[in-house]
Amino acid sequence: MPSSAPGAAILLAAGSSSRLGQPKQLVRHEGQSLLRRTASMALASDASSVIVVLGNSASRLRPELAGLPVSIVENQDWPSGMAGSLRCGLAQLLLQAPETPAALLMVCDQPHLQATHLRQLWQQHQASNQVVAAQQADGQPGVPAIFPARCFPQLAALQGDQGARALLRQLPPSELHILPMPEAVADLDTPADLARLRSQALNEQS
């Protein structure tokens, strides 16, 4: 990985997955848990470092990251919502590398994403020096998304269950570069979503 990497990655993995009924971070896909798969994907992108924010079931999740060169931080107040986990990740990033020029924000429940998609985001960000986000199914920008450091205070000011998408929706078009990425659409929130994912995997293997 080049020393001129454009920024760090923050993987938000602190939620309880209440609608799914089990920690989605531990759902296995392509031979590994979604948590390890996504963290490995972040490492394989052009990120200079990777921070993983855990919360619910942290003791069960930590072993999934064994051997990976990532920084782990626990959000003790994870029930208050995604904004708190985002602040934890940003605080750890600024502690480790206060001059980091940008941060890639990620979540675990996009099983069709690949490292190549993340590298495309970094490339677009470097070319435009703007916020870069994946296009979602409803036409709204969402994560994975890269925010320049000037946006860190706005991200840290989010409250409750607001995530990065809330800020993306507030940005004027001049500050936002959209990269169409249908692979980022597939969330994993319900048992029906999980059944569909497993069915697709079986069909691909047959």
Key terms:
MobA-like NTP transferase domain-containing protein, two-stranded antiparallel sheet, nucleotidyltransferase activity, Nucleotide-diphossugar_trans, alpha/beta
Present the secondary structure layout:
Elements: E1 8-13, E2 28-29, E3 32-33, H1 34-44, E4 50-54, H2 58-61, E5 71-74, H3 82-96, E6 102-107, H4 115-128, E7 131-135, E8 141-148, H5 152-156, H6 164-170, E9 176-179, H7 191-205
Parallel strand pairs: 1-4, 1-6, 4-5, 7-9
Antiparallel strand pairs: 2-3, 6-8, 7-8
Organism: Acidobacterium capsulatum (strain ATCC 51196 / DSM 11244 / BCRC 80197 / JCM 7670 / NBRC 15755 / NCIMB 13165 / 161)
Protein name: MobA-like NTP transferase domain-containing protein
Domain MobA-like NTP transferase: 9-171
Short structural summary:
By secondary structure, the protein is α/β, with parallel strands linked by helices. It is 34% helix and 20% strand. β2 and β3 form a beta hairpin.
Largest sheet: 7 strands, mixed
- Tell me how many strands there are: 9
Helix/strand order, N-terminal first: EEEHEHEHEHEEHHEH
**Roughly how many Å apart are the termini?**
36 Å
Rg, alpha carbons: 16 Å
| CATH topology description | Spore Coat Polysaccharide Biosynthesis Protein SpsA, Chain A
Coarse shape: globular
CATH superfamily grouping: Spore Coat Polysaccharide Biosynthesis Protein SpsA, Chain A
Give the spatial strand order of the biggest sheet: 5-4-1-6-8-7-9
How many domains? The number is 1
The number of distinct helices, counting runs of at least 4 residues, comes to: 7
CATH C-level category:
Alpha Beta
What is the share of helical residues?
A: 25-40%
Mean of residue pLDDT values: 89
Given as residue ranges, the uncertain stretches (5+ residues, pLDDT < 50) are none
Proportion of residues in β-strands: 15-25%
* Structural class by sheet pairing and helices: alpha/beta
Give the second-level CATH assignment, the architecture.
Answer: Alpha-Beta Complex
InterPro entries: MobA-like_NTP_Trfase, Nucleotide-diphossugar_trans
GO molecular function: nucleotidyltransferase activity
Pfam families: NTP_transf_3 (PF12804)
Domain MobA-like NTP transferase: 9-171
